[in-house]
Molybdenum transport system permease (Phragmitibacter flavus), 228 residues
Amino acid sequence: MLPGNFSSEDWQAIWLTLWTAAFAIVAILPPGMALAWLLARKDWPGKSIVETIVALPLVLPPVATGLILLKLLGRRGPIGGWLYENFGLDIAFTWRAVVIALGVMSFPLLVRSLRTAFEEVPVRLENIASTLGRSPFNVFCTITLPLARRGIAAGLILSFARALGEFGATIMLAGLITGETATLSLSIYQHVQTGNDDQAMKLLTVCLIIAFIALWTSERLSRRRLTP
């Protein structure tokens, strides 16, 4: 019943949100997993500082995080200016900005979830594998990852759900450009601003359904951690 009531712009917002959120989570997974493992298994100078920096997007207003990203990645920013001058690549106010904003805002949640998953893996099992001559990488792939798989999956789904609902950083870095940067959250905001509350509620229903499924799945996986 709902699909027939969506405009082409609304469909664009739905698909844009889904694929940019998925892209963002895939992009932050390798560094997020590496950092989570380091935080869970190693002690090193500056660890508490790194933990604080990673957690900053959780406590800063999303608009503030978006402004920092804009200053860094805009054409006049140090990173964005260099990319534009050397490669003609624009970041701000493009789909790339959406992916970066979603990734940055989801990264702390992903790292925390993966760190918890790694901490729940008994170190004793890793040590036994090491004494049998397995390399650290082999131990990670054959012991740590399999035992942490449900926690990792739960963290990925939770981070994906967080990305779906991102608003503040996205509107600062990517703007609200229909068909290019207008995600579900931005489209809902646009409909409300233009007095189209009915359409906003339909998109809100889509958000609620996706968020509910993601959170329910994440909770189910979290409860079954380390279960054979």
Q: What stands out?
A: The mean pLDDT is 91. The chain has one domain: 8-41+52-223. The chain is about 75% helix and 0% strand. The two ends are 41 Å apart (CA to CA).
